[in-house]
Amino acid sequence: MISDLSHSSKRESGDDRRLAIAAAARAIIIEKGLEGLRMRDIAARVGINIATLHYHVPSKEALVALVAESLRSDFRAQSERRSRVGKSALEQLRMEFEDFRETMEDNPELIVVLTEMIERGRRDPAIGVIVAPMYDFWRHQFADIFRLGTTDGSFRADLDPTAAALITTAALSDCRRQWTQFRVSLAAVTAELERAFVTQTNSSQGMSDVR
To answer: 178 in helix, strand or coil?
Structure first.
């Protein structure tokens, strides 16, 4: 019994340490970008030595994988706060839009870190292997929603779910990255996306409000 408790305590301590390492890495990525991520800086922020850090993340690739897992965990927790069970495809689409808006307003650092990792992944195959599945998972989520919508009457029967998913994720990503004088609100973007995909019946019932 004592041995079991000891192993459990060590496991929890290790999990807490990895969470602290991921949080420190995310903070540095926000401040300096992925290029500025240094093991020594992370160790200093967490309050551990390099040897201990390397025990948990033996390489920069392992560190990026840990950060990616922490992002997945945060996005998963957000999604699970609002159950999709029994919801129509249109309702699920609106929930995804609401989750994105909530992240932009309440936790923008999540998207900043993810975007930084995606951009680096396009240039660095070692990073790309870690990040690409995460980005594609987001696209597949939308594709599944659009696929459901073509059968439950939410969206046009001739809609291409994969193309619609790519259009949607590209629009959301670009909306977040707006930096020139050409600007459009997220609400306006999501309303236009919805209008492009829904059936005429759903369109006549009213769309998302443009706030």
So the answer is: coil
In this structure, the answer to whether residues 209 and 117 fall within a common structural domain is yes
Check: CB of residue 50 under 8 Å from CB of residue 115: no
Residue entry with tokens 């193309």 = 163
Q: What are phi and psi of 183, to 5 degrees?
A: -135, 145
Whichever domain contains 187, its CATH number is: 1.10.357.10
Kindly state whether residues 167 and 191 are assigned to the same domain: yes
What's the residue count for the chain? Answer: 211
The domain of 17 spans 1-58
Please tell me the total count of domains within the chain: 2
SS3 call for 155: strand
Residues 86 and 53 in one domain: no
Q: Are residues 34 and 120 in the same domain?
A: no
- C-beta of residue 117 within 8 angstroms of C-beta of residue 64: yes
Tens of pLDDT along the chain (211 residues) come to 444 444 444 444 678 999 999 999 999 999 999 889 999 999 999 999 999 999 999 998 999 999 999 999 998 898 888 889 999 999 999 999 999 999 999 989 998 999 999 998 999 998 999 999 999 999 999 999 999 999 999 999 999 999 999 999 999 999 988 889 999 999 999 999 999 999 876 665 554 444 4
**18 & 36 share domain:** yes
pTM above threshold 0.85: no
